[in-house]
Design a protein that fits this description.
Layout lengths: L9 H11 L4 H12 L5 H5 L3 H16 L2 E7 L6 E7 H5 L12 E6 L2 E6 L3 H7 L5 H13 L6 H14 L5 E6 L6 E6 L1 H27 L3 H6 L2 H12 L1
Antiparallel strand pairs: 1-2, 3-4, 5-6
Helix pairs in contact: 1-2, 1-9, 2-4, 6-7, 7-8, 9-11
Length: about 240
């Protein structure tokens, strides 16, 4: 049975940031989940479909930082920085509803043939990103999941679309509008990159708190991180007073 994910303590956030800062984005996603998944191996997490992986990242983000978030993007029309609210719980709702740790197979008909495929995993993406361009990367991904090589272009496209329909959480698109020039566009939301940026910011804030409190009180890093966040904040206010 799948174990519930654990939240990330201050000490875990620091360790996670140190482990992931030199990793590829695909590896970082797994490193985040591994820190919160007791009893799970990295290989088991890499076997999850991308939608299930991202659904777990959304769930963990909500546990650690709450359901609300603020995002920003650059307007493609006027380059204005556009800020927008994010409802993490609502994004979680796009996750596939199926038993955990299962990768069911699907079928489509293309050019008169029945093609059977499974959903992409982190293993598949790791192979596909090595391709020299996005078109070849998509083909590599689809052919791995279909277990067939040299598929016609129209079959590759058909399977790609069927994958998105079967695993909607694997590609979350946000509709944005610029308040300055009224430009509208779709933004592909990457929870792995978004959450990692938040973890990095949290880790750097924690390091500043450790430095300030260690200088003021002579406490060790372990002693400081063992304090509740509100207690640390109170001591920091006293130091600054």
């Amino acid at each position: 049975m799948e174990q519930p994910m654990q939240s990330l303590s201050a000490a875990k956030i620091l360790a996670l940031w140190e482990a992931g800062r030199t990793q590829h984005a695909l590896d970082r996603a797994l490193t985040i989940l591994l820190a919160a998944s007791p009893g799970a191996s990295r290989g088991e997490l890499a076997d999850l479909s991308i939608g299930e992986r991202d659904a777990r990242l959304l769930q963990l983000r909500r546990q650690v930082l709450g359901a609300g978030a603020e995002g920003f993007a650059e307007c493609p029309g006027c380059t204005e920085r556009v800020e927008f609210p994010l409802d993490i719980a609502a994004l979680e709702g796009r996750a596939p509803s199926r038993p955990p740790d299962t990768l069911p197979h699907y079928e489509i008909e293309s050019s008169g043939d029945i093609i059977r495929f499974r959903l992409p995993t982190s293993h598949d993406l790791a192979e596909a990103v090595a391709a020299p361009d996005s078109s070849l990367a998509l083909r590599e991904l689809v052919e791995r999941c279909a277990g067939q090589a040299n598929l016609p272009n129209e079959t590759v496209e058909a399977i790609s679309q069927a994958m998105l329909q079967a695993d909607p959480a694997a590609e979350i698109t946000l509709q944005l509008s610029c308040p300055v020039c009224a430009q509208e566009w779709d933004l592909l939301f990457d929870i792995s990159a978004f959450f990692w940026a938040e973890i990095a910011a949290q880790a750097q804030r924690l390091l500043r708190e450790i430095d300030a409190l260690a200088r003021a009180y002579g406490w060790t890093e372990h002693e400081i991180l063992s304090l509740p966040a509100q207690r640390r904040e109170t001591y920091l206010e006293l130091v600054a007073a």
